[in-house]
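Re-running the complex after MR caught last week's input typo. The corrected sequence lines follow. Everything else is unchanged.
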Amino acid sequence: KAGVTQTPRYLIKTRGQQVTLSCSPISGHRSVSWYQQTPGQGLQFLFEYFSETQRNKGNFPGRFSGRQFSNSRSEMNVSTLELGDSALYLCASSPGLIPYQETQYFGPGTRLLVL
Amino acid sequence: SQELEQSPQSLIVQEGKNLTINCTSSKTLYGLYWYKQKYGEGLIFLMMLQKGGEEKSHEKITAKLDEKKQQSSLHITASQPSHAGIYLCGADDGYGGATNKLIFGTGTLLAVQP
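Corrected-run output:
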């Protein structure tokens, strides 16, 4: 099976702009989670989608949003970008049926640089 | 909230040497995951542990979850340059068992000198 794919891999934006990142999960997986990784804060959970519904949300401002489509592909959007949003954004997929007993498989990430 | 602390933060070993990385939780672990990350890239799944006392091995890497389920260790035998990278432990955050949400340790940077 193909792994988790993320597009684009690299992105440069300026403050105030908005950005949309895309994630395609492993075929058959219905859960997609998003994480932000920065040198200062490490890996932090953003949100999880399962069957087009947000199932959990981390402690991030409302500028961070996401959605999931019927084919399980997911997008996350960051509006009004700030310098501190520069990070590696990772998505992970899993079957989603039995949380706590499933492995999450990560994509290669999208590196976002905000100037 | 649950926190994961990894030690050491960084490690430099000579090729062929054994090493151990520890991950300690502030609360009982319901699922403990070990991942490896090359700088700036995605996480590669290594192993998942769920039961107290559980031990799993893959090639030269062994991971254990202690009986009290608050600490895990990752042991690499006869390290090779290919083992270099950042090792991260992750755990289910204990949120009601209904969602996939992992919290992560700060990571251990491993360098293997030829």
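None of the earlier attempt is carried over here. The mean pLDDT of chain B is 91. DSSP finds no helices and eleven strands in chain B.
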